Amino acid sequence: MAPYESDDNTNEELRTGRRKAARYVVPVAVVGLAAATIGLVPAFAGSGDPDLPEITAEQLIEKIAASDVQQLSGTVKVSTNLGLPDLGGLESSLAPGGGGGAGGSEDEGSSADPSTKLMELASGTHTLRVAADGPDKHKVSLLDDAAEYSLIHNGDEVWAYDSASNEAFHMKDASGAAEDKGKEEEAPKDVPTTPKEMADEALKAVDDTTSVKVDGTAQVAGRDAYRLVIKPKQSGSTVGQITIAVDSKTGMPLKFTLTPASGGAAVVDAGFTKVDFSKPDASTFDFSPPKGAKVTEGDEAKAEEQARPKAEEDLGQGLEGFEGLKTIGEGWTTIARFDTGGEGIPSEAGAAGGFLDSLGTKVSGKFGSGTVFSTRLVNALITDDGQVYAGAVTKDALVKAANAAK
After folding, report:
1. What is the per-residue pLDDT for 120?
2. Domain that holds residue 314
3. Are 263 and 294 part of one and the same domain?
């Protein structure tokens, strides 16, 4: 199939479709996940490109917006290739409640707490088993070689269970009541974990700085799909392109792939390997803690967090002290700028400063000097006088922004 390129005259239609698409809550929404699920999966493996009727980018975006899949079950493969340095487990110990679980101390929180457990999705390759039946019945299970972590939303009940530590986490989903009362008391907001959720986030970026086209077809999890390709028009972005495989019948995104401008393996790629749109068995969403399981209630977790060491409290206050978050540029090359209110990372800051400094690259310019910390997608410049510039942009773009700010 030949590609169908959008032009400037269709940007308003694209934005309209994007806004509609963003309103839809994916049926496989995961309540309370606190990890960004981005991955590395071979792109669109299948039995060949299906022959489908031609469709424009505008029509495909509208098809995504109109998608209203309420019931499904399947398997999603997710991996991460951000190019982060190996910190030898340091990242997990720094996470809230890090080190909890089997063998952890009582004040380290629950290993089943979704805000900590699913930080594992930030690296490596993972398999998720998902199921949904309407807006208030969802289940996502993170499968490991010898254990399983499940997050279950059934009506106003939310359970998480970690079989490795035999710990459960329980909370009430008061989103419906909160909406009625105009309050914000509800379960934690979802983060993108399925191709649909990721696609909705990507479609929010569709504007005059974006090229959108339909570029052929694919077969994903045994289903025929269109390939929607989104690319930045601007130079300086670390994003090469985003490819979304859209089910030709239901309009539901089946696969999401983000490749970096630098080339190589995908940074973000999550896709169904199996999918079934029939109604899951009602027992799928039933859960009772196994005998002997440690159960932590959501209110207890809040109390534990409030009782954490003063060092963590001081760190939080330090973060709140950032002065005047500002943005520079627009579209895909937007850079966030803020002032830490202190110094950067001078080499004489001791062992900790030296360690952090070794992870970055020294740069200099009209702004003075500083250190750039890089991943394959997001880069950050911390100047020696405490200014921070960060975005999905190149190192040169950060230095240029810092120079222009002087």
Report:
1. 74
2. 310-405
3. yes
